[in-house]
Design a protein that fits this description.
There is one protein chain. With 394 residues, this protein is α/β, with parallel strands linked by helices. The protein has a domain of 185 residues: 3-Layer(aba) Sandwich (Rossmann fold). Helices cover 29% and strands 23% of the residues. The chain contains 10 helices and 15 strands. Strands 1, 6, 7, 8, 11, 12, 13, 14 and 15 form a 9-stranded mixed beta sheet that branches. A 6-stranded mixed beta sheet has the order 2-3-10-4-5-9. Helix 4 runs parallel beside helix 7. The longest helix has 19 residues. It starts with 8 loop residues before the first helix and ends in a 12-residue tail after the last helix. The structure holds flavin-adenine dinucleotide. The site of flavin-adenine dinucleotide (FAD) has 43 residues, from strand 1, helix 3, helix 4, strand 5 and helix 5.
Length: 394
Amino acid sequence: MLLLSAADPLSITRRRLISAGTVGAAGLSLMGCTGAAVRSASSAAPPAPSLCLPPVKVSRDRVIREIVGLRPYRASGFVVRAEALGAKRLVHNYGHGGAGITLSWGTSKLATQLGLQGHRGPVAVLGAGVMGLTTARLAQEAGFPVTVYAEALPPETTSNIAGGQWLATGHYDRGAVTEAWRAQFRSATDYAYRRFQLLVGDDYGVRWVTQYFETSPTPPGAAVPSRGYATQPNWRRLQRQEHPFPFDVRQHQLMMIEPGRFLRRLMQDVQIAGGKFVVRRLASPTEVAALPETLVFNCTGLGARELFGDKDLYPIRGQLVILLPQPEIDYALGFQSHGGGYMFPRSDGIVLGGTHDENEWSTTPDPAVTDRIIVSHQQVFRTLRCRPSGLTSA
Ligand SMILES: Cc1cc2nc3c(=O)[nH]c(=O)nc-3n(C[C@H](O)[C@H](O)[C@H](O)COP(=O)(O)OP(=O)(O)OC[C@H]3O[C@@H](n4cnc5c(N)ncnc54)[C@H](O)[C@@H]3O)c2cc1C
């Protein structure tokens, strides 16, 4: 899992730094690079990189919480499919692995297109994670009354635990998906990418940031790809002298979603549009069939394994360590060396993660894993080659 990017004013500051080594008004936290460059030159050390980033302060006493979530993974990919359940139409929308926030609007769009066509009357949505809430909103936008039935509401959902990068990673096995599924994936990605852009701002907790991601060195003479995917704008490999990281990196801009804020706002939107929430666990298809609505969307995430008997669905456990917020950190980072990990900058804290444990069901944080996450990130942030002045080491 990885990171993000910025088309916001700060990215302009950063671009200025890259090109000219100067600092814009919004870049006070980056000041000091010039001094670092002068010191490096006088001591004959390698020249300081032109991009100077503030380090994340990684230490135990800055940890504000440790959390664990279970990614609802299927090797053959998410399920968006309609079937009959007695006299009802049941539309599945679950199994998004480590990409549920990213794909949410997209697969929910596919699900509602499948379900709503020709339907009349109220709609039931099972689940109040990101899939249930986006499905509910899209059904409401199409003019249907909605009731959401869920065992747990935000903030008690897996969706609240997500790191929040808008990047579809870790949700399928290349060898196990069909061409038809790939077409659904493309369509979902396209819609979700555009829909999230409409929500950029503090109210939904969505913003653009720059993501740096460790990449393997380019062999001498090899062609350097100049861009990635259409949904990863401003993608490029950075030259060693351009960036402060202790490994080769590429960058791109991506949206970062703050799940707590985003889900809270979606719940409000559902309620404002007349939607109802019923806190209830559905224990079997028979109970689902007894609901009053004749159209039901199944957005129960990992819960679909038990509720509808999908044994291809299993958890990939992820543990996160959240550090005190550091407002000056406006970039994200992913790396495989130094033990591996990722860092997301959010207003509710700096998110450190990178663990993927297949078929692990425990949601209790493991102190040894917390230690590993802290150590790997300390190693990286201690070795940033350029430090803005006034910032202490990690
Ligand atoms: C550590 C971690 C980091 C992640 N980072 C990212 C990221 O950066 N970007 C990204 O895109 N994705 C990320 N994800 C993945 C993302 O969190 C999931 O794919 C997404 O939350 C799945 O959403 P969902 O709505 O399907 O499930 P959930 O959020 O689990 O919601 C399921 C809902 O269904 C309800 N439910 C379940 N069973 C029943 C039942 N029998 N009866 C009634 N209600 C039921 C639950 O109570 C809940 O309301 C991450 C996940 C983890 C764990």
